[in-house]
Design a protein that fits this description.
The protein is an alpha+beta fold and 167 residues long. The chain has a domain of 107 residues: Aminopeptidase, CATH 3.40.630.30. It contains 4 helices and 7 strands; from the N terminus they run E-H-H-E-E-E-H-E-H-E-E. Strand 3 and strand 4 form a beta hairpin. 24% of the residues are buried. The C terminus is likely disordered.
Length: 167
């Protein structure tokens, strides 16, 4: 009997077709990203994307991306996506991908923003357990379904504050 591992590593160009195929399965009602969108995201120098796999070098079963925007001393991060194949949900892949994204933000001392469907209780609970709070609602954010989204924010991690700054 073999046991799968939880591997989180960098998403590469070779992973793009698998991600685009997963998008169709997971987001058919809300404009799934095509191959070209993933390519553009990976090519942007301010973005970082991660893959979740069951084994080193294995196929992608989840992916996540974050951008770091602004100028040094005034950076903020925005989570673009966290997605886990339906067959792999509930196994900690989403939590591991979120941890990788938050490490990027923590390394530069930036707050993190995201949008999440208002009916995605599992994701909302994960974000709240990781320090995010709801800061607004975007009506009809997801298209073409018209689903609403919460805007959520996690303040910059206290451990990344510069010396002499207030806690």
């Amino acid at each position: 009997m073999t046991t799968s591992e939880l591997i989180v590593d960098d998403l590469g160009h070779a992973d793009i077709p698998r991600c685009a195929a997963l998008e169709i399965v997971m987001f058919a009602d809300d404009s799934p990203w095509p191959v070209a969108a993933f390519r553009a995201e990976l090519n942007a120098p301010y973005n970082r994307y991660f893959a979740a796999r069951e084994a080193p070098g294995g196929p992608v079963v989840g992916y996540a991306g974050i951008s770091t925007l602004g100028s040094p001393g005034d950076l903020e991060c925005e989570i673009h996506t966290i997605a886990v194949a339906p067959t792999h949900r509930g196994r900690g892949y989403g939590r591991a991908l979120l941890a990788a994204l938050l490490a990027v933000a923590d390394d530069c001392g930036a707050p993190v923003y995201l949008e999440v469907r208002t009916d995605n209780d599992t994701a909302i609970e994960l974000y709240e357990r990781n320090g995010f709070v709801r800061s607004g609602v975007r009506r009809n954010y997801y298209q073409p379904s018209g689903a609403d989204a919460y805007t959520m924010i996690r303040p910059a991690a206290a451990s990344t504050q510069s010396p002499g700054s207030a806690p």
